[in-house]
Amino acid sequence: MNRNDVTEMIVATKISKGLKWADVAARIGLSKEWVTAGCLGQMTFDASQAAILGEVFDLPEQAVALLQQVPYKGSLPTAVPTDPLIYRFYELVNVYGSTFKALIHEEFGDGIMSAIDFRMDLQREADPKGDRVNIVMSGKFLPYKTY
Prior knowledge:
By secondary structure, this protein is of the alpha+beta class. It is 50% helix and 18% strand.
């Protein structure tokens, strides 16, 4: 068994039980965004979090142990995503990446936005012209250091 097998077990059980990621996250006491990323193989759970997931998803002990191991990060199978939803984020970076970079550097200086010290909130935003996806991302600014 490997971490990908655990992810497949989680997703299959989520579907069969009719669970929502927000409900799983509530059981752990963390955001739906972080818990979903972890359940999909991108984050490391501590022992108590992994035990809760073991109960929720009926996981064997080996799977619970694997949830506590540092995963290989990066979940996309190709350099350019082929899934239409994920491709739109790739397109966003292609179109607005230089704008993000210019505005962040102008506001903060030379550095990057952390994807480690990071928060995300995804909400549905009602709109009479069609509901919108509202995603707020907040990452700590990390300046480049001289040495």
